[in-house]
Amino acid sequence: MQRGLFHSRRVSSAHFETPGRGGAWVFALLAALLALASCRSASDYRREADETADAYLSAYQLEAVGRAEKIEIETPEDTLRRRLMIDQGLLAKDPASFGIRDIPTNLYWRVGDRMLPGGEDPSLSVWKGGTNALEIGLVDAVRIAAFNSREYKARKESLFRAALGMDLEDDTFRSIFSGRLGSSVGVNYDKSESRSVADHSVSHNETASFGVSRKFRNGARVTGSIMANLAGMLTGDTRTAWGSSADLSISIPLLRGAGDLVNTESLTQAQRSFIYEVRSFEQYKRSFICQVESSYLALVLAKRRQQNQDEAFRRVIRSTRRSYRMAEASRMSQSQFEQAHQSELSSKASWIASCQNYESTKDSFKLALGLPPDARIEPREDDLVELERYVGRFAKLEAGEYDMGKDDEEGRIVLEDPDSVDDGDLKVRTDRAIDIAFSNRLDFASCRDRVEDAQRRLLVAEDSLRAEVTLGASAGNFADLASTGTGRSGESHGRVHPREWSANPVLTIDLPIERRSERNAYRSALIAVESAVRDYQQEEDSLKNTIRADMRTMSQTKDNLQIQYMAMNLAERRVRNQEILLQAGRADMTVMLEAQDSLVQAKNSLYSAMINYKNQELALQRDLGLLDVSVNGTWKEADLVALGVLPDPGRGKGKQ
After folding, report:
1. Cβ atoms 377, 136 nearer than 8 A
2. N or C end of the chain, less CB within 10 A?
């Protein structure tokens, strides 16, 4: 006798017993279920993932900061970077430089299957098209950076991934369902010596299983499953031995591992960690606004310095020409003219350096925004004019008559000490600022919460030292799932077996005899609490130090602004006086050139002081946690004067 599966003899001489019409229904059902399971596309799954992440982000943003914002990570159909590269004809090596949607289809990438239809980059509203330079202001710069900065996009993506990770953690206490369908077909070949025709028989077996498991917050775990032979259930063939089995098990910890605190620790920590991520992103947005604003104002300062140097260079050229004519008329010595000529050459070198510095600063600024460095952009002048008007309210002073000051009884000059954060009105305002920071800094709140995290983990470590007592039980209903099939003789190969019921209670006891690793983990958890308290102390002291430094710097920059206003006023007065003397032929060329250089330096120093003040004020708002920033790059500053952090800008004006 020879037996084999799927023998290679000619089937025309063989006789088959097929499963019949009922078996066809089984295969049709299996095919339908398989098609249903595979009908969801990758795009459907990514939409589901997006909706899940958005739900988590909204919920935790509301808890952490009191408002929800949609975190967009999908690249729009058109971006400002792409539009500038196309309209301004910028160089590009690969289509990827224009954006992910411009990457051509290849063996690994199809845009239509991977990317959802996207809208336009909101920062495109600042671009009017054409080949001219893009003119932007501070508000435009921050908005552009919010949608084009690679660093900012990476932080948003990191937060989005954290939301997806939170979804996995939440599965711990959900009911987890599983299902499986199986089908097998066998062909048996039988040829005995007494038979001239080979005997073939076909057997098939279709099974379905379904299970569910769930862990509860108190530590109990329930698992159940059921399995059935579909062939007999669907065909109704009495010759078919079809059966089913089911089992159910439960375990309940009574000591070690019992209770919500212990079993939900992993989920609780995941939730806390995600809250920390949301808070960290909020503080990052504030820092990001400060970085972009600082970069923009540095560009404006570089442009104004270039303009100041341009103006100074022209002034020196005019003075040199006047000196040349006076020397030709013997009204000025040749050496004085040569000194003026030498100053012109030096001024030209400074002018060239200022032009190159402006171009270099502009390239760095474009990179910070996520734009190509060869894109043509220009900053608006309105922002600097507005800044001059803003700081002029409290810092602009005119140089009055010289104040001789006072001497002490021994004839020593008496110096007036600057404001101190440890004394007087500045101390009152500094203490107020520290109190505001304690209440509003989100990262500081996270540091406080980490102390509680360490305390909670300590309780979990204590629980592991206890004896383990687990009550369990299992119950089952079993039947033999014999394979179905009919041979040539028509006899059934299936056998129905009686059902067997069983129930098994279990009590597991693990006495705390060997707890070395648990003991060490408990001691480490105690140390972790100490460490968390020290980290909190460090964070609190660091925050105090930061606010004190901010308040000290704010006071210093304000004093420096007032000094620079008076210095420029004096420099302008010196230049006017020397020009009058030069026209009268009585000017000293050395004094004239020094006065012109002093005016350029005074202007540059004044604008630097203005920008430093604005940067420091915004940094103070950031460090206080008061800067209200949206994910799309809009922000709102708090009134620090009304909060008692800064003095009334009307005080201290006048002449000195």
Report:
1. yes
2. N
The pTM of this model reads 0.80
Q: 436 near 624, Cβ under 8 Å? A: yes
3-state secondary structure of 457: helix
Q: 617: closest CA among 422, 400, 395, 443?
A: 395
DSSP class of 170: G
Kindly provide the residue ranges of all beta strands, DSSP E only, lying in 399-515, ordered along the sequence. Answer: 468-478, 484-486, 500-510
Which residue has better confidence, 649 or 533?
533
Which position has the higher pLDDT, 232 or 480?
232
Give the pLDDT of residue 204.
Answer: 64
Strand bridging mode 199-215 / 176-190: antiparallel
- DSSP assignment, residue 88? T
| Predicted pLDDT at 650 | 62
**Tokens standing for residue 201:** 């028989």
The 3-state DSSP class for residue 210 equals: strand
Question: How many Å apart are CA 639 and CA 394, to the nearest integer?
Answer: 15
Reported as type and span, the H/E element at residue 654 is strand 654-655
Distances (CA, A) of 185 to 5, 188, 191: 10, 10, 20
In the three-class reduction of DSSP (H, G, I as helix; E, B as strand; rest coil), residue 369 is classed as: helix
The structure tokens listed for 169 are 């953690």
pLDDT at 4 over 50: no
Amino acid (1-letter code) at residue 226: I
Nearest-angstrom CA–CA distance, 480 and 241:
8
Q: What is the CA radius of gyration of the chain?
A: 41
Q: Say if CB 67 and CB 169 are below 8 A apart.
A: no
- The domains located in the chain, with CATH, are 11-18+172-253+469-510 (no CATH), 268-402+415-446+527-655 (1.20.1600.10)
Q: Are 144 and 369 in contact (CB under 8 A)?
A: yes
- The better pLDDT of the pair 239, 570 is held by 570
Are the C-beta atoms of 386 and 158 separated by less than 8 Å?
no
451 Cβ contact list (under 8 Å, min separation 6): 529, 532, 533, 536
State how far the Cα of 488 lies from the Cα of 199, in Å rounded to an integer.
Answer: 7
Tokens encoding 378? 């220009």
54-113 pLDDT, tens per residue? 999 999 999 998 899 999 888 888 888 988 998 888 898 898 888 888 888 888 887 766
Amino acid at site 402: Y
Contact 3, 198 (CB under 8 A): no
